[in-house]
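Structure (tokenized):
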């Protein structure tokens, strides 16, 4: 019973870094911070497993090699070096004997890791699991063999073969399961990113026609004036006026293109303070071409006495709002009005998008945000899912009020940035 309790405790300790792995994965682009967090989590696991060893009928052992192996495989050589160092320090704090002998005993497994570490990330799932199980077993076996042969106790290794074998099998099994879980989480995160990216490109594609259409107007105007310049005998003032109009039209085309392009901005996530009012105007600008194309008016109302900042990735936030705004426009088949509002209340920003389009029944509202739910012929059913994901990541709340035939209102509530 005591054994089982210790065992469960150790499994819990080893699995705890996995529970936080999502947060570590999120910062993977910041290499230094990513490695530091990996180090902290796995070194804590090493220290705790060493502090609570397991007693199997008098055979005392612990699972230190599991967090050591997995942390090393995930973090690479630098993380591995610090994990090994932490293990040695912890051992010295626990007053275990023969410090230097232990350093020498464990060194070969570190050297082996440095030699093999580069190829780990390119392995397949089964190969990764096998590598982790083998490496884990090797750390323990290699260290013990060297250590015990120096102290003249090598017979301890084979004294109780069944108990010893049990510890190796158990350790290998836990390491294998951990790697499997981590790899599955990896795949899930990558798939989510992939969906968000493909949805973004779909939206950019959908809006391309309206942008092209919108740019044609200034071009036509400019073309007319350029022709006028060449043929007519214009006085100075007229020339100036026409030139001014041409420049204004060019500016307009330029800003339409700039807004449109920033929609398709690349991915690296940068969390910063975003001014909601400013973003509302951006949203209106970027949706304007699509709205005009669909014969829809846009009205912006912002409480702009002062800037109000919320926290998040600017481009992701834009993507979330464009998805919702685009749905609103698409719901108004025969023209209508899209209202974009920001209200500041109790240290929170309310971002409100309302349309007077087709609306939704309560069943349809419930299905919003679930993958592949779409009522459109060419819909992907991923837009709201991606948007809701982004908003929730920013600690935002979403409420939807809608009535079939009357229209829909999306309320997005974000806390103030610290
Ligand atoms: P898609 O736009 O590709 O269909 P979304 O996830 O963006 O996928 O939207 C899912 C569904 O939710 C839409 O097909 C539509 O039926 C409904 N929907 C979303 N927003 C609105 C809205 N403002 N008015 C009416 N229906 C909406
Ligand atoms: Mg959509």
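Design, position by position:
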């Amino acid at each position: 019973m005591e054994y089982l309790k210790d065992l469960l405790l150790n499994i819990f300790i080893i699995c705890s870094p996995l529970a936080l792995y999502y947060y570590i994965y999120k910062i993977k682009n910041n290499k230094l911070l990513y490695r530091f967090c990996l180090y902290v989590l796995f070194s804590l696991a090493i220290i705790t497993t060493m502090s609570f060893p397991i007693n199997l009928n008098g055979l005392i052992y612990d699972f230190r090699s599991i967090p050591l192996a997995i942390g090393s495989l995930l973090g690479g050589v630098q993380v591995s070096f610090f994990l090994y160092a932490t293990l040695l320090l912890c051992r010295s704090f626990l007053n275990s004997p023969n410090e230097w002998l232990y350093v020498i005993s464990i060194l070969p497994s570190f050297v082996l890791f440095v030699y093999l570490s580069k190829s780990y990330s390119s392995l397949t799932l089964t190969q990764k699991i096998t590598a982790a199980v083998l490496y884990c077993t090797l750390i323990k076996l290699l260290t013990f063999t060297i250590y015990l042969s120096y102290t003249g106790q090598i017979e301890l290794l084979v004294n109780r073969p069944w108990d010893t074998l049990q510890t190796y099998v158990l350790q290998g099994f836990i390491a294998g399961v951990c790697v499997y879980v981590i790899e599955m989480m990896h795949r899930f995160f990558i798939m989510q990113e992939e969906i968000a990216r493909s949805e973004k490109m779909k939206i950019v594609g959908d809006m391309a026609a309206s942008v092209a259409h919108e740019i044609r107007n200034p071009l036509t105007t400019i073309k007319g004036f350029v022709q006028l310049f060449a043929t007519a005998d214009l006085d100075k003032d007229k020339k100036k006026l026409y030139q001014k109009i041409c420049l204004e039209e060019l500016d307009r085309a330029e800003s339409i293109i700039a807004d449109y392009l920033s929609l398709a901005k690349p991915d690296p996530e940068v969390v910063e303070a975003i001014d909601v009012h400013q973003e509302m105007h951006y949203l209106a600008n970027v949706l304007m071409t699509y709205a005009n194309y669909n014969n829809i008016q846009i009205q912006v109302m912002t409480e702009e006495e002062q800037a109000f900042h919320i926290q998040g990735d600017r481009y992701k936030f834009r993507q979330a709002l464009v998805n919702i705004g685009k749905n609103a426009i698409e719901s108004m088949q025969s023209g209508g009005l899209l209202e974009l509002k920001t209200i500041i209340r109790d240290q929170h920003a309310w971002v409100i998008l309302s349309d007077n389009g087709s609306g939704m029944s309560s069943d349809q509202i419930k299905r919003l945000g679930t993958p592949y739910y779409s009522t459109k012929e060419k819909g992907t059913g991923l837009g709201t899912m991606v948007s809701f994901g982004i908003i929730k990541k920013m600690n935002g709340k979403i409420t939807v009020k809608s009535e079939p035939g009357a229209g829909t209102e999306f309320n997005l509530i974000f806390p103030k940035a610290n």
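Reviewer-requested clarification: The chain has 14 helices and nine strands. The radius of gyration is 31 Å.
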